[in-house]
Amino acid sequence: MLVKLTSRAWSLNILALLDAGVPGRQAPLLAETQASRTSFAASLEHLVDLDLLERNPGHGHPLRPEFRLTSDGVVLAKTASRVVKAVPDDNEFALLRKSWTVPILALTDEPQRFSAIKSNLTTITDRALSTSLHRLEGRAWLKRDIDVSQRVPFPTYRAVSKGLAINQAVDLTA
């Protein structure tokens, strides 16, 4: 679910804002996220498709509906809120909007090999995983170590600093 949730750039923000009590109308949510209308609308529609949001019956105009969290949405909105609070800086937050950032960080509380991360994220390609790992390592959210205890040395990846804070904010049991 975490992979599906983060596949749209503004999904985490929208859920976190609704958890914080921002009204479920498009205008206030759009103003708070500062997203483009197109990407915001795609993220909103994506959350509806995932059954995390629903139209609030009897509220809003048909062309400007009001949305509310579903029961599953309430649980994930709390997680999204914790993740968003872990990265308050807008420049760093841009990395959270990348598709694979949160799922990778959620898996790397302990050192993980490339192949282990890939097997847990079955839909990720080698190139996407490699690019994401390099990007996270460049921001110092992920640490790459070389394990030389085996006959063939291999790299392992582990969340550190803000990456570890995001890891701890994600509750994989939800």
Explain how this protein is built.
The protein is an alpha+beta fold. The chain folds into 2 domains: 2-86, Winged helix-like DNA-binding domain superfamily/Winged helix DNA-binding domain (Arc Repressor Mutant, subunit A, Orthogonal Bundle); 101-169, Arc Repressor Mutant, subunit A (Orthogonal Bundle), CATH 1.10.10. The chain is built from 10 helices and 5 strands. Helix 2 crosses helix 5 (71-86).
What is shown here, in short?
With 174 residues, the chain is an alpha+beta fold. The protein has ten helices and five strands.
Question: How many strands?
Answer: 5
State the order of secondary-structure elements, H for helix, E for strand: HHHHEEHHHEHHEEH
Query: Reading side by side through the largest sheet, how are the strands ordered?
Result: 3-5-4
Helical/strand content category: alpha+beta
Q: Could you name the ranges where pLDDT drops below 50 across 5 or more consecutive residues? A: none
Note the beta-strand portion: 15-25%
Rg calculated over all Cα atoms: 17 Å
Which fold name fills CATH's third level, the topology of the largest domain?
A: Arc Repressor Mutant, subunit A
| Main sheet characteristics | 3 strands, antiparallel
CATH homologous superfamily label of the largest domain: Winged helix-like DNA-binding domain superfamily/Winged helix DNA-binding domain
- Binned, the helix content reads 40-55%
The count of helical stretches stands at: 10
- Straight-line distance between termini: 9 Å
Shape: elongated
Overall pLDDT: 86
Total number of domains: 2
CATH class of the largest domain: Mainly Alpha
